[in-house]
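Support request from a user on the community tier.

User writes: "When I paste my structure tokens into the form, the page sometimes reloads and wipes my input. The last time it worked, I copied everything first. Here is what I submitted, just in case something in the input itself triggers the reload:"
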């Protein structure tokens, strides 16, 4: 019905952290307040993160310091998802070489699996997650076990990880080293694969969750892979321009300015005059050109643009940007 908040159509929000809840050490303006309102709206909240080295309680404590509602039970990291994924691949009591943090080791134990310390113990499986203390010997042990046929799960394959001094190699680089040595490819639990999102939804008992994130290649792709509705907020990495050009698998269901937009009605996007209309904006495709009548500072213009371009290019395997032709002088 008109005036119904967007969030009313969902029973849970699965939220990314960096770029959605906080940026660096500070909460994004309005984000904490928006998250606090979810409970009153009858919507559950969970956080999904590729971090596999910090415990759920450590992440929740950080969120509470910022004022966001969080408990260990509402934080789902790739360590938990990875351990659950692995438990579905091997029998109870199977032995697992854990290449990662103490938190990952704990998650493996909670699944009824038995951690071992060496490939010489002929482990049934290897699970690999990030830990800054990992070295060549750890990766070699993992490679020996994987090469011998052990089931192999990676918590995530992020190629980089932000640090105070800059960007450092992430778990994906360590996984790539084992892959290069063995010629094998692991099962992956974290973003952009589906297991992390499915794990969070299953624990909440959510049937219609909305995945909210700021990155097309992790949050939105992962939510889409899980079969959930996705919302991209413009408080982090990606922009309306990158969303417009996104390949099909990374296209979000909704474009939102921020988390507060969850409580507003989402504007209708309708076919109109050979193109699409949203609010006062219209967009139509002519070859490789996207003609937009609207203001580039108004998100409705980009919503209409995305609808028109995506409808014209329904099966894009690569990011493809149109030539933009504005018939109203863009603002801002």
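"...and here is what came back when it finally went through:"
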């Amino acid at each position: 019905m008109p005036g119904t908040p967007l969030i009313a159509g969902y029973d849970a929000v699965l939220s990314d952290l960096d770029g959605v809840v906080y940026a660096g050490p500070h909460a994004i303006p309005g984000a904490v307040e928006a998250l606090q309102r979810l409970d009153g709206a009858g919507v559950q909240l969970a956080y999904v993160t590729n971090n596999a080295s910090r415990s759920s309680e450590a992440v929740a404590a950080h969120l509470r310091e910022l004022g966001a509602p969080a408990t260990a039970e509402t934080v789902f990291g790739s360590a938990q998802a990875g351990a659950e994924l692995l438990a579905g691949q091997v029998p109870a009591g199977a032995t697992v070489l854990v290449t990662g943090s103490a938190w990952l080791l704990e998650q493996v134990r909670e699944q009824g699996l038995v951690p071992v310390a060496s490939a010489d113990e002929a482990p049934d499986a290897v699970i690999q997650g990030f830990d800054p203390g990992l070295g060549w010997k750890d990766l070699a042990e993992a490679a020996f076990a994987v090469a011998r046929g052990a089931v192999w799960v990676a918590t995530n394959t992020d190629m980089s990880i932000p640090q105070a001094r800059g960007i450092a190699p992430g778990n994906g680089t360590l996984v790539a080293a084992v892959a290069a040595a063995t010629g094998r490819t692991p099962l992956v639990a974290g973003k952009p694969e589906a297991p992390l999102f499915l794990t969070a939804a299953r624990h909440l008992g959510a049937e219609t969750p909305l995945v909210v994130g700021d990155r097309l290649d992790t949050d939105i792709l992962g939510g889409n892979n899980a079969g959930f509705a996705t919302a991209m907020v413009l408080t982090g990495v990606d922009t309306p321009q990158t969303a417009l050009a996104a390949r099909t698998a990374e296209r979000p269901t909704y474009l939102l300015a921020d988390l507060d937009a969850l409580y507003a009605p989402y504007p209708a996007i309708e076919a109109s005059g050979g193109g699409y209309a949203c609010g006062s904006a219209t967009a139509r495709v002519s070859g490789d050109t996207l003609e937009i009548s609207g203001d580039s500072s108004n998100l409705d213009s980009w919503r209409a643009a995305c609808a028109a371009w995506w409808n014209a290019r329904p099966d894009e395997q690569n990011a493809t940007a149109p030539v933009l032709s504005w018939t109203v002088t863009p603002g801002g």
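Agent notes: The reload is a front-end session timeout and is unrelated to the input. The longest helix spans residues 299-312. The longest strand covers residues 44-49. Escalated to web team.
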